[in-house]
Design a protein that fits this description.
Elements: H1 2-13, H2 15-27, E1 52-56, H3 60-76, E2 81-86, H4 89-99, E3 104-107, H5 113-123, E4 128-131, H6 137-145, E5 150-153, H7 159-172, E6 182-185, H8 188-196, E7 202-204, H9 219-229, E8 234-240, H10 245-258, E9 263-268, H11 274-283, E10 288-290, H12 291-294, E11 305-308, H13 314-318, E12 323-326, H14 340-343, E13 348-351, H15 359-365, E14 369-371, H16 375-388, H17 391-395, H18 402-416
Parallel strand pairs: 1-2, 1-4, 2-3, 4-5, 5-6, 6-7, 8-9, 8-12, 9-11, 10-11, 12-13, 13-14
Helix pairs in contact: 3-18, 5-6, 10-16
């Protein structure tokens, strides 16, 4: 009770600072100013009549991973409504493109007790799912008081976060997972951790990202892209971060020694930094062009670096480009990004060594995704792919995702409904 009151009081006291923080995020292009009030728990859409469940997914990867669960919920109950909340703009845009009106999207309110109470009172969910690592103490207490069951899906926590959780538990006697009805974890090791951190019931299930459908492909755009690339040797570095860009430029220069007309596609993780990437290419002595400025014209790509500066297009690129390197994995601290997406297109895929956010998935697909540790290894991987890789041969050896994981999704759905 003491901790609960403390969380509430502290959150109200710092709410003016949170408001300033939201304004800063808007100024940096990280929030939608027209939907700012959603972050205060004020809805921008009407609640439909009938049963509603609430699923919170932070960003794009988590959102994609729960799409099969949403489909299964709706198979179980055709009249069920789904409220899907996210934190990031990128996820909101992806939901709009891929889900349309099949779900209700809102941005989750910041964890100020009055904002959370307003949100829960308005939407009145039958059950709530938090995905992977989101712990909102005030909202969880509000749900508990209202007898609304909360579940954690795909509980995955970094080693540094685990250390902080254990420290908080030891000093303040707070059990982070104690307010969840069930905690679903992808590994036995994570199950042990969440139990020690207060989980009443925990179940090991495979990572739901394995069930996510392939990214959508716009066939006309995909064909236009193929024509613009022409016969050039091409590879794509996906979800690059600022700390990794120079490594990709170095690989490009090495490849250019063997293939003078090689094309490197840079799918930057955050399109807002496109101007910085263009400047960095110039400083590296490389020419560049942007997808958003060139895709609608007939001009072929002749530059060194082609910058994918728009979200929601990766399926088009994976359908055309055979060789894929997934970034967020070349330096410590990011944890890797989703290599399942290009694997599902039967691409030749590699990633870096720092993939702690995806280790539980990697063990299932290691034979389809190389783990590389240096500029030299990446260069050699791309050269070997240019010389030897056959997408047709890879297509002939598909990975069976559906039969292993669809029953898991059904069992979760039946348990909740």
């Amino acid at each position: 009770m003491f901790q609960q009151t403390t969380f509430r009081v502290v959150s109200v006291l710092i709410s003016p600072i949170v408001r300033l923080y939201i304004n800063k995020r808007i100024a940096n292009g990280l929030e939608d100013s027209s939907r700012k009030t959603e972050r205060f728990g004020i809805p921008s859409k009407s609640r439909p009549d009938g049963s509603l469940i609430w699923i919170h997914a932070v960003s794009v990867g988590e959102t994609i991973s729960v799409l099969p669960l949403i489909d299964e919920f709706k198979k179980q109950n055709k009249n069920l409504h789904v409220l899907l909340t996210t934190t990031t703009l990128t996820a909101a845009r992806m939901i709009e493109e891929r889900c349309g009106t099949s779900v209700i999207h809102q941005f989750i309110p910041f964890d100020v007790s009055t904002w959370g109470r307003r949100f829960v009172k308005y939407w009145r969910p039958k059950a709530v799912f938090f995905v992977e690592s989101e712990l909102w103490p005030n909202i969880l207490h509000i749900l508990h008081e209202a007898s609304i069951p909360a579940y954690m899906l795909n509980a995955r926590v970094t080693s540094s976060t685990l250390k902080r959780m254990y420290m908080v538990q030891k000093i303040f006697k707070i059990a982070p997972y104690s307010l969840f009805r069930n905690v679903y974890v992808p590994t036995n090791a994570m199950r042990r951790h969440v139990q020690e951190l207060g989980a009443r019931d925990s179940i090991v299930i495979p990572n739901l990202k394995m069930l996510a459908p392939p990214l959508p492909v716009d066939e006309p755009q995909s064909k236009r892209l193929a024509r613009k690339i022409g016969k050039r040797k091409v590879w794509i570095a996906v979800s690059t971060h600022l700390t990794e860009d120079n490594i990709i430029y170095a690989v490009h220069k090495k490849l250019k020694e063997r293939h003078h007309d090689v094309l490197t596609i840079l799918a930057i993780r955050h399109p807002a930094r496109v101007a910085d990437v263009i400047a960095a290419c110039l400083n590296a002595g490389l020419t560049s062009a942007c997808y958003t400025e060139t895709i609608t014209n007939a001009k072929q790509i002749t530059e060194d670096i082609y910058i994918l500066d728009k979200l929601g297009c990766l399926g088009n690129f994976f359908s055309v480009v055979d060789t894929v390197f997934v970034c967020g994995s070349l330096v410590p601290g990011i944890g890797g990004h989703n290599f399942l997406e290009p694997i599902k297109f039967s691409c030749n895929v590699a990633t870096g060594e720092f993939i702690e956010n995806f280790n539980d998935i990697y063990e299932h697909v290691a034979q389809w995704c190389k783990k590389l540790r240096s500029t030299g290894e990446i260069t050699q991987f791309v050269l070997d792919s240019f010389a030897n890789f056959s997408r047709e041969a890879r297509v002939a050896q598909p990975i069976d995702y559906e039969s292993k994981w669809s029953e898991v999704v059904r069992s979760i759905s039946e348990a909740v409904l």
